């Protein structure tokens, strides 16, 4: 799935409970953390695939239980509401994996398997035979759904994910959303 979709799903998970901004950020990171192993695309492009770090390691290094546990330990150390933030981080991380299993087929038809127990049991690869392509309508529908959820959360909670980057801009966005969604015609 698209990294934006993973981000929006992580943000939505972060709003299941009332968390401070810091804890919401930690949970949101859980929604995108597995894709940290996709940064291998940069050296792969720069070296004309001589360093095949993306092709070889994407969906391996961070799409597994070891990465989930390592991330969880860091989140629990940093979080204010440790149990809730940790649980929501773990949920967001695993929703990411589920979304990749459902809708991560490449344009060449390759189904990215999830090596969930890597490095402990490399042979187990989770796939779904009906996995849809990255550009298939279910992925677009999921993204649109979570955009709507994000707008609804901003209207009802008074903040959006933009607050991660700028509270001042976030206030303006929420103000605009509330104004547009409460106007009567």
Give the arrangement of secondary structure elements:
Blueprint: H1 3-14, H2 21-32, H3 41-46, H4 53-57, H5 65-78, H6 82-103, H7 137-157, H8 167-182
Descriptive tags:
single chain, 185 residues, mainly alpha, 8 helices
Q: Which regions contain 5 or more consecutive residues with pLDDT less than 50?
A: none
Query: What kind of sheet is the major sheet?
Result: none
What fraction, in percent, of the residue positions are helical? 55-70%
**Rg, nearest Å:** 18 Å
Overall pLDDT, averaged? 92
Category from helices, strands and their pairing: mainly alpha
User: What series of H and E elements makes up the topology?
Assistant: HHHHHHHH
Number of DSSP strands? 0
Compute the number of helices.
8
The dominant shape is: globular
Structural overview:
By secondary structure, the protein is mostly helical. The protein contains 8 helices and no strands.
């Amino acid at each position: 799935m698209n990294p934006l979709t993973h981000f929006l799903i992580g943000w939505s998970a972060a709003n299941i409970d009332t968390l401070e901004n810091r804890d919401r950020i930690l949970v949101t990171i859980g929604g995108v953390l597995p894709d940290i192993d996709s940064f291998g695309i940069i050296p792969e492009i720069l070296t004309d695939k001589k360093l095949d770090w993306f092709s070889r390691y994407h969906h391996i290094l961070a799409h597994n239980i070891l990465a989930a546990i390592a991330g969880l330990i860091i989140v629990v150390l940093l979080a204010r509401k440790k149990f809730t933030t940790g649980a929501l981080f773990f949920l967001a991380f695993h929703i990411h994996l589920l979304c990749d299993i459902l809708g991560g087929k490449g344009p060449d038809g390759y189904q990215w398997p999830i090596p969930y127990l890597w490095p402990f049991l490399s042979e187990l690869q989770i796939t779904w035979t009906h996995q849809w392509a990255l550009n298939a309508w279910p992925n677009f529908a999921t993204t649109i759904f979570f955009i709507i959820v994000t707008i609804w959360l901003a209207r009802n909670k008074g903040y959006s994910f933009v607050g991660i980057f700028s509270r001042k801009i976030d206030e303006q966005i929420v103000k605009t959303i509330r104004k547009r969604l409460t106007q009567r015609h």
